[in-house]
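Q: Structure tokens for this one, please.
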Amino acid sequence: MAKATELRKGKVINHNGVPHQVMDMQHRTQGRGQGWVQATMRNLDTRASTVVKFGSTDNIEFLVTENQRLEFSYEDGQNYVFMDPETFESTELGEDIITEEVKKYLVPNSQYDFLLIEGKPVELVLPASVELKVTESPEGVRGDTASNVQKPATTETGLKVMVPLFIKEGETIKVSTADGSYMGRA
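A: Here is the predicted structure, written as tokens:
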């Protein structure tokens, strides 16, 4: 057991019997009183976030975690199949880990990092950006050259992105996974 003051962003703890990942934490103190730690945590089972206050002397249990890089192979109905590039073992993951938000950025033959607790994947960690091929994009209107004019484009994963007029179907673009915005050509 560790003290609450040892909490750090990114660590995973056992809180009320459920794994929670610390998203943010602040150590606070009052004049004469004892300090406390205020942590924003995400429940790794339900994906809900919550703010919890711990006394600075409260005991918490850190869970042993590891990261593993897996390559996305294909989607098989409701499951998503990933392969370990070193051992060639395949892992099927369901929609409890591959959420609607994550699906938009999954590209076959690309590698993704997973957070594992006791050898079991609990969360897919998206990279800062992904490269997606444009499958549908209307032609830009001639003479429509005001600065920063954009048009809608649909990528291979179904993600809709606003892109500059010069982007055409078949081009590969770089998209931010934080907000789904166009970052440039790949």
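A few notes: The chain has one helix and 16 strands. The CA atoms of residues 4 and 58 lie 6 Å apart.
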